């Protein structure tokens, strides 16, 4: 039996796409407001529960939840910015205070999502320990099960990164975004409304988190109200590994960490019984290694290499 | 056009300037000379509103701007180019110019872009290049071009030729003269006294936060004692 079979590869790429989308959101807000956002997992839960409700209550395909997820995620992202980040920044809060504030937001969200799950349950929508994979399109090709999520997630992630590229390079607000990231003071002097760019980054991050979360209950066989926060270590590792100085860093890091986590954990599982429980070990090991040996991440390595050439 | 009258200023409690008066006439090039730490940069920053002013006034076109915030001064047509960090290194030349035009209409921008490219053909050639990959002199030109896009009437330059090779420094000097021909007023701090006396209409020497000489370049060159003491000129 080969070390990596096709089924495992399909699962790994799909999982990585989910991580990549969420990590891109995390990197986005870090670039503008310099806050490591612990509420990124909360944005994912918004998407996950939108998918559960749309699929189980309305009987639609979970993918049909994507537009609504994006909308709700955007709203939640903006709410976190305007209710928490903006007022604290105005009072000159340092990174530590902001980070703890996002941690508080994520704790509040776990409570809120549990309430949402209870409300859904009482409305006849099963919301605890429920997966939506049974609703997904599937086809058996020889020994391999091909699921819809294997196709939709990576294609969607690619489309998002392409759209981001267009936004950042060919629109005025996108160029203003890059200018603000590099030098907020100079951008302000040029007349860029820096606060608006920051609000936009949080909206974008909320949207990316929520669409990423929409795929979670479809991909995993079990989803629960803490599902987003369970993803947090992996997402943070992905952002750092990719490089926090570029919006594409989260995307690249998402695939590196996602693939490594899936494949290495599986291989470890074959050597040591029960290693599946320790899947964070892999992402945390890469995380630490990158911080020690290449603190600017993969994007940093590429750029430094390019400069030497 | 610009009148700095008996200004004492500094940063918080750290006073740097003591009763400095400087006059900049419309369409002139005025150079501030003097050793490191003499207050040249502080004076430039004061004109743009980046320091604490304790006493004295700054008037621009007859209007008191002593306590006006920097962005409001920018709207009046004053542009300030710090020595470093005056362009976005990760943006292309054209994107930098677009950012400079952030608050003006597209038609006006394209119109001015054409003029700016006419003035700096090298920027047109490198318009797709990242500003971080430009040479020091080209970056200064881009910074000046961004000020022109914003329709600056008074451009404040903090040591635009510092860290430049002699040839690039001369190019910047030629650019500054060209700006004057286009009716732009220039106030600059300069280390290179030879270059400054070459292009300036009026020269000030600062030492320890006070003006110790003002006059035409000719007046200065007739005072070899000052040149030797403060400017490293020997002839």
Task: Give a verbal description of the structure.
The complex is a heterodimer of chains A (about 300) and B (about 240). Chain A has helices at about 5-35, 40-55, 65-90, 95-120, 150-170, 170-180, 185-190, 195-220, 225-240, 245-270, 280-295, 295-309, and strands at about 140, 145. Chain A is mainly α. In chain A, strands 1-2 form a two-stranded antiparallel ribbon. In chain A, a hairpin with a 2-residue loop joins strand 1 (about 140) and strand 2 (about 145). Chain B has helices spanning about 40-50, 70-75, 95-100, 105-120, 120-125, 135-150, 165-180, 195-200, 215-220, 225-230, and strands spanning about 1-10, 15-25, 30-35, 50-60, 65, 80, 155-160, 185-190, 200-205, 210-215. The relative contact order of chain B is 0.18. In chain B, helix 3 packs parallel to helix 6 and helix 6 runs parallel beside helix 7. Chain B has a domain at about 1-85 and about 150-230: Rossmann fold. With about 240 residues, chain B is an alpha/beta fold. Chain B is built from ten helices and ten strands.
């Amino acid at each position: 039996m080969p070390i990596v079979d096709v089924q495992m590869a399909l699962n790994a790429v799909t999982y990585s796409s989910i991580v990549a989308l969420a990590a891109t959101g995390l990197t986005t807000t870090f670039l503008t407001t310099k806050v490591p956002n612990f509420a990124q997992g909360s944005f994912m839960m918004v998407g996950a529960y939108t998918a559960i409700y749309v699929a189980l209550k309305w009987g639609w395909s979970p993918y049909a939840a994507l537009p609504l997820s994006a909308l709700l995620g955007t709203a939640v992202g903006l709410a976190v910015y305007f209710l928490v980040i903006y007022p604290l920044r105005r009072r000159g809060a340092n990174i530590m205070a902001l980070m703890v504030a996002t941690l508080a937001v994520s704790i509040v969200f776990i409570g809120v999502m549990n309430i949402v799950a209870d409300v859904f349950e009482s409305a006849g929508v099963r919301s605890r320990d429920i997966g939506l994979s049974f609703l997904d399109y599937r086809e058996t090709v020889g020994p391999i099960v091909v699921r819809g999520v294997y196709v939709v997630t990576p294609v969607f992630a690619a489309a998002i990164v392409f759209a981001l590229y267009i936004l950042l390079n060919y629109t005025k607000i996108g160029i203003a975004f890059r200018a603000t990231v590099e030098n907020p003071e100079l951008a302000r002097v040029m007349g860029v409304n820096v606060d608006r760019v920051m609000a936009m980054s949080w909206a974008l991050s909320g949207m990316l988190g929520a669409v990423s979360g929409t795929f979670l209950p479809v991909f995993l066989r079990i989803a629960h109200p803490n599902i987003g926060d369970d993803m947090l270590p992996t997402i943070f590792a992905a952002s750092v590994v990719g490089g926090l100085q570029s919006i594409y860093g989260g995307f690249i890091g998402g695939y590196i960490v996602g693939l490594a986590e899936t494949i290495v954990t599986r291989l470890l599982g074959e050597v040591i019984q029960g290693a599946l429980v320790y899947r964070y070990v892999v992402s945390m090991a890469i995380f630490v290694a990158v911080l020690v040996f290449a603190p600017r991440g993969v994007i940093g390595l590429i750029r430094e290499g390019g400069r030497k050439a | 056009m610009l009148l700095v009258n008996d200004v004492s200023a500094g940063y918080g409690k750290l006073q740097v300037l003591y009763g400095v008066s400087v006059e900049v006439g419309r369409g002139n090039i005025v150079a501030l000379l003097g050793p490191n730490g003499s207050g040249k940069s502080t004076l430039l920053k004061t004109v743009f509103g980046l320091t604490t002013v304790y006493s004295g006034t700054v008037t621009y076109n007859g209007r008191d701007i002593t306590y006006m915030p920097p962005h409001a001064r920018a709207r009046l047509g004053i542009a300030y180019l710090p020595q470093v960090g005056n362009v976005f290194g990760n943006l292309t030349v054209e994107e930098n110019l677009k950012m400079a035009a952030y608050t003006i209409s597209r038609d006006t921008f394209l119109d001015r872009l054409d003029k700016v490219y006419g003035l700096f053909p090298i920027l047109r050639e490198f318009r797709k290049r990242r500003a971080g990959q430009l040479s020091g002199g080209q970056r200064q030109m881009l910074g000046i071009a961004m000020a022109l896009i914003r329709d600056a009437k008074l451009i404040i330059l903090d040591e635009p030729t510092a860290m430049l090779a002699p040839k690039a420094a001369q190019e910047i000097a030629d650019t500054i003269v060209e700006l004057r021909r286009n009716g732009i007023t220039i106030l600059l701090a300069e280390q290179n006294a030879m270059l400054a006396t070459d292009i300036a209409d009026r020269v000030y020497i600062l030492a320890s936060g006070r003006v110790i000489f003002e006059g035409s370049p000719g007046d200065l060159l007739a005072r070899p004692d000052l040149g030797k003491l403060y400017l490293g000129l020997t002839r």
